[in-house]
Amino acid sequence: MALQALQSSGVAFRKILSHFPEELSLAFAYGSGVYRQVGPSSDQKNAMLDFVFTVDDPVAWHSKNLKKNWNHYSFLKVLGPKIITTVQNNYGAGVYYNPLIMCDGRLIKYGVISTSILIEDLLNWNNLYIAGRLQKPVKIIAMNENVALRSALDKNLKSAVTTAFLMLPESFSEEDLFIEIAGLSYSGDFRMVVGEDKTKVLNIVKPNIAHFRELYGSILQENPQVVYKIQQGRLEIDKSPEGQFTQLMTLPKTLQQQINHVMDPPGKNRDVEETLLQVAHDPDCGEVVRRGLSAIVRPSSMKQSTKGIFTAGMKKTVVYSSLKLHKMWKGWLRKTS
C-alpha cells in the first residue's frame, strides 16, 4: 500500500512531538529539513523543520497548547482558543501556522489543521494546500486508526497520478511524472514569483526519486491505464479521448468544477460531465487541467500567506519572509554563477 511508504520511526521528530499536546490524528514532517534538496535548500542540518499536526478538536488542542507553549503564538493568543480556531478553519487554507519556534535545539514551524478539513482537502482538493504537501514524500511521525483519513490519504496520491497523466505525453520517464506531481500544488502559487526558488520543484524531486518511487510505485503498478516499465523507469499511458475522459471523470470534485469554469462560456451553464467530455477531445487538455489547478492554488496560497501575518505576528513575518527571499537570492546566484 502506498501509504506505508510515508511511515517514519525518527526519534528526533518524536522528541519534538513530545513538547505538544498528544491528541493528534496525524503528525508529519516535511521539507528540506527532512528530505535532502539540491540548490539553496541543500543545508539540511541547519534547515528549519516543518511539521503539520492534524487534530480532531482544534479548540481543545489549542487550549492545551496555549498552556504548554504560550510564547509560540502571536497576539491572537489573548483572544483564546475559540478565536484561534475560527481563524484557522475559516481563513486561507484551513491551517494555522506558528513559525520560527526553537524546540529541542532546532528551529521549527508547525501548522495545525482540523482532521475533517484535511480529509475534505485530500478528497476534493478544496485548497490543495496540505493535500499538496502530502503528494510529496513526508515523514509521518504519528497516525491514529482513523479509517476515513487513511483512505483519503491514499485517494489523494491516486488523484495526483491521474492529474499528472493528463498533463504528460503518451510516453515519459519516472522523473517526468514525479516533477509533474511535485508541481501540482505550486501551479499558480504566487510565492513561486516572490519568495520561492524558481527551481524548487526540480530541487525537491532530483535527490528523492527513490522516495517518490516508494510512495507511488504500487499505485502505478495497479493502475490499468498505464504500462509501467520499472527496469527502464519509463511509463506509457492511454492518451485517446476515451482514456482522457475516464481520467477526467475521476479527478477531485473541486478541480472538475474549476475546469468547468475555465471552459464554460458565460451564461451557458453546461454540466461538468459535458465539459469534461469536450476537454477529453481537446488537444490542449493538459493546459486546461493546469489552468484548473491554478484557479484552486492561487487564491488559496494568497489567502494563507495573508493570514500568516496575523498568526505569526508582524516581527516573525518579516524575519520569515526575509529568509525565503534570501533563499531565492541564493538560488538565483547559483544559476548565474
From TrEMBL:
<keyword id="KW-0460">Magnesium</keyword>
<keyword id="KW-0808">Transferase</keyword>
<keyword id="KW-0496">Mitochondrion</keyword>
<keyword id="KW-0999">Mitochondrion inner membrane</keyword>
<comment type="pathway">
    <text>Lipid metabolism.</text>
</comment>
<dbReference type="GO" id="GO:0005743">
    <property type="term" value="C:mitochondrial inner membrane"/>
</dbReference>
<dbReference type="GO" id="GO:0016024">
    <property type="term" value="P:CDP-diacylglycerol biosynthetic process"/>
</dbReference>
<keyword id="KW-0443">Lipid metabolism</keyword>
<keyword id="KW-0472">Membrane</keyword>
<keyword id="KW-1208">Phospholipid metabolism</keyword>
<keyword id="KW-0548">Nucleotidyltransferase</keyword>
<dbReference type="InterPro" id="IPR015222">
    <property type="entry name" value="Tam41"/>
</dbReference>
<dbReference type="GO" id="GO:0032049">
    <property type="term" value="P:cardiolipin biosynthetic process"/>
</dbReference>
<keyword id="KW-0594">Phospholipid biosynthesis</keyword>
<comment type="similarity">
    <text>Belongs to the TAM41 family.</text>
</comment>
<dbReference type="Pfam" id="PF09139">
    <property type="entry name" value="Tam41_Mmp37"/>
</dbReference>
<keyword id="KW-0444">Lipid biosynthesis</keyword>
<dbReference type="GO" id="GO:0004605">
    <property type="term" value="F:phosphatidate cytidylyltransferase activity"/>
</dbReference>
<protein>
    <recommendedName>
        <fullName>Phosphatidate cytidylyltransferase, mitochondrial</fullName>
        <ecNumber>2.7.7.41</ecNumber>
    </recommendedName>
</protein>
<comment type="pathway">
    <text>Phospholipid metabolism; CDP-diacylglycerol biosynthesis; CDP-diacylglycerol from sn-glycerol 3-phosphate: step 3/3.</text>
</comment>
<comment type="function">
    <text>Catalyzes the conversion of phosphatidic acid (PA) to CDP-diacylglycerol (CDP-DAG), an essential intermediate in the synthesis of phosphatidylglycerol, cardiolipin and phosphatidylinositol.</text>
</comment>
